[in-house]
Amino acid sequence: MELHKHEETNNQKKPTVRHILTFLIPSLVGAFLFLVPIKINDKWTVLIGYVAGYLQGILAGALPYFLLGLLVVSGVASLVAWVFKPRFIMETPALKALFYTSFIWTTIRVLGAVFAYMVLTETGTEMVYGLATGGEVFTNLLPVLAVWSVVMGMLMPLLLEYGLMEWLGTLAKKVMRPLFNLPGRASVDSLASWMGNNMMSILITINQYENGYYTKRESAVIVTNFTITSIAFSLIIAEILTLSERFVSFYLTVLAGVFIAALICPRIPPLSKMTNTYHEEKPGAIQETVEKGSLWKSAFTRGVNKAKIAPSVGTVLKKGAFNALDIWFGMLPLVMAIGTIALMIAEFTPVFTYLSYPLVPVLEWMNIPEAAEAAPAMLVGFADMFLPAILGAGIESELTRFVVGAVSLIQLVYMSEIGVMLMRSSIPINFWQLFIIFIQRTVIALPVVVLIAHFIIFR
User: Fold this and answer.
1) Which residues is 343 bridged to in the sheet?
2) Exposed, middle or buried: residue 454 (CB in 10 Å: 0-12, 13-18, 19+)?
3) Over its length of 459 residues, how does the chain's per-residue pLDDT go in tens digits?
4) Which residues in 15-29 are b (16+ Cβ under 10 Å) and which e?
């Protein structure tokens, strides 16, 4: 063991050209795919987003039937595994990991398959298959998750396994650690979300947590505070709210609110009470100490050292394929079931209207026009991020639409996709913690956005 450590230390001092190229080439490709904005067809995106969107377009005709097949297989196989525990599933680690789960999750998987069938065939009640409920989840959310999971599974190792996270993390440490008490590498999660989408950021964070790079607290803080809404999605929200002409000021307001919320939320419960222990009690896979000398040299050294121990291409592809299957059979049914139920509650019950009653006098005190219409729109975002814009689009006051839209993007936490992903992941965060964080972010975001709107944008 001591000899091995000595040899490793010696290698770290003398990187070979092969090690340097192993760091540089995949990392540059990964950065170009995930982090560099490019303009395609007059729209800014990242290349991996364009690739995923292109594939989704090509497969559009077949995707609904493919998705229904995935959900049916997941529901039936999980039910069989839970009831009968057949040997071919229980004695095959991959199949057991994919299909053997608890009674509650098995029930939800079956429900997801039933909902998907109802949407595709338009049978049963319109409350389930309507365009605003199950139709929204099945048509708009599941295809994105299904395609992105494959693209991410195959290409995400370029970002994670060859030193780019270590290089950027070392450079960002002096900002991330004092401001947010997070490792510098968390900046990559945020960049991926900002340039691509927040699902990309969450998948990266889950991967890093499971591999021992983040503690429980750090991973929970990142997924609830740094899955920054992408520029592309923010533009869609601005267009729905007819705020396109104010998009620059609108998005800068969102970034200001996200920054302030990220300073406060990790320092108060429930996030502040989470332990700084690692997944399955494993010690951290990386020690964030910066070597003496140039920060850039230290970052480069860390990147090269990570590249030295990068897994083989076969191992990377096998792991990526399993992660994609885990999302297909494990996460998609949950998004279908829980997302549909959340949207049904938002569309067909007065729950969010009742919850918003205490907010109305607060908005009136803040001199927000049409406060009674704006209040439910600010809370319904917990069900789905599109709903505030849909409800707010009919508000006459531009200032109120601005406030509703900006607050909804700062809230970040919503159940139809992100909430389900987090509750099913290994990151230790539950429904009530997510709800509390959503309320906290709303309370923090509202005065920030209102002040900017009144005194800078609409003065």
Assistant:
1) none
2) middle
3) 343 444 344 444 577 889 999 999 999 998 888 877 787 777 766 788 788 888 988 998 999 999 999 999 999 999 999 999 999 999 999 999 999 998 999 999 999 999 999 999 999 999 999 988 899 889 988 888 888 888 877 888 888 889 888 898 888 888 888 888 888 888 888 777 776 667 778 888 888 898 888 999 999 999 999 888 777 678 778 888 988 888 889 988 999 999 999 999 999 999 999 998 888 776 555 555 555 568 888 889 989 998 998 888 888 888 888 888 988 998 899 889 988 998 899 889 999 999 999 999 999 999 999 999 999 999 988 988 878 887 888 899 999 999 999 999 999 998 877 888 888 788 989 999 999 999 999 999 999 999 999 999 998
4) beeebbebbbebbeb
**Long-range contacts formed by 242-251: CB under 8 A, 24+ apart:** 242/393, 242/398, 242/401, 243/398, 243/401, 243/402, 243/405, 246/402, 246/457, 249/456, 249/457, 250/402, 250/405, 250/406
Angle in degrees, 0-180, between the axes of helices 313-326 and 142-160, rounded to the nearest 10 = 150
Burial-class residue 1 by CB neighbours within 10 Å (0-12, 13-18, 19+).
exposed
Alpha-carbon Rg of the chain, whole angstroms?
23
Amino acid code (one letter) for 109 = R
- Which neighbouring-strand residues pair with 39? 44
State both tokens at 38.
Answer: 């490019």
CA distance 137 to 75: 17
pTM for this predicted structure: 0.78
Residue 268, classed as helix, strand or coil, is: coil
* Phi, psi dihedrals of residue 2, rounded to the nearest 5°: -65, -40
Three-state SS at 373: helix
> What are the tokens at 296?
């850039």
